[in-house]
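REVIEWER CHECKLIST
Item 1: Sequence provided? yes
Item 2: Single chain? yes
Item 3: Sequence as submitted:
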Amino acid sequence: MLPLLCTPPPIWLMRILFDHGTPAPLIPFLEGHSVTKAKDLGWERLVNGELLKAAEQSGFEVLLTTDKNMASQQNLKSRTIAIVVLGNSQWRIVQRYVRRITASVNAATAFRENGNAL
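Item 4: Structure as written out by the authors:
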């Protein structure tokens, strides 16, 4: 009798949170990562500092946002979450930059794996 082969559960590289402006069609391009939309957690009304705090407390490692002003509105030095800011929220435009976006997310992954904080 042959032993049963079990498939191990997937290992997610990063837990990523999409804010309310991040286009959902981007999700399949972040293969290997665990992506959650803020709306699915009931966080669509949280803004800036509140959203960052909730995301960090829930173990998210990357926030994908379309809020270009977040860095100027928040003190990000003490944050443990990496923030990737998209230049636009319209999928027809964002899709042109999928490789750059995934590279940014993966760079955050590599940086963390080396024991560094962002």
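Item 5: Key structural point noted by reviewer: The first helix runs from residue 48 to 57.
Item 6: Recommendation: ____
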